[in-house]
User: What shape does this take?
Amino acid sequence: MRVSSLSTYLTTTRGLGTALERVQQEQQKVAGGKSLTRWSDDPAAGSAAERYRSEEADWTTYQRSGNDALAWLGTADGTLQSMSSIMTRVKELAVSAASGSLTAASREAIASEVDQLRDQLRDLGNTTHLGRSLFGGFAQSALATGAGGVVSYAGDGGQVQRQVSPTITVAVNV
Assistant: This one.
């Protein structure tokens, strides 16, 4: 078989065109900082890249859930600390009221302060976070005041949960 100069020229031109195309693709990868610009470049790598993007989105969601859980728990912690301080004050008042040396006016003042502290506790019990009851499950509020100032639990047993990893879910309400 005879090789003509035309066929040599065409083969060489085709080879140079292919080489130039590969050089341009590599330059695009370097300039763009990406080794994968089209699915047709490497279908297996494209599939892996999509899987990694999906996993990254999942972990971003877990991070947001974790931050939300921290905010819920921080609010609950602050509220419970305030309640504990109030209960300490109620205990102090109860101990001082048991003293037989108090006058009726002193006992009346203690009773008035205890009523105010009860109202503060009720308000703290109805604390909300992002519009949802912190201590009442899925109910609007945790506590209700009935006739005669009697405070009763009005919430339900629902748990607000946040998924913070593929295997860990945390209850954020109390």
